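dude i think i finally got it to work??
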Amino acid sequence: MRVANLISDLQRLNPDDEVVVAYWTRDLADRYVENRTPLTNDQWQEIVNEVGSENIQFQEVGDLIEQLAYEKTELLDE
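look at this
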């Protein structure tokens, strides 16, 4: 989801309502997979597309992003 779309969605809500919001960024996904090459914009877009097409439980989203980031990056030379 693009940030602009999220902002638009939130602006339609009553500012006094309570909501639960969770989001992941490419930087956060990179932190999940230490000692690996950083995700490229294209790799991150693939992850966003794949996560968006999954019918998964809320708790599983972070695990799925971590798994996909591992699959799409390479170990760094040490």
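The chain has a mean pLDDT of 88.
im so relieved honestly
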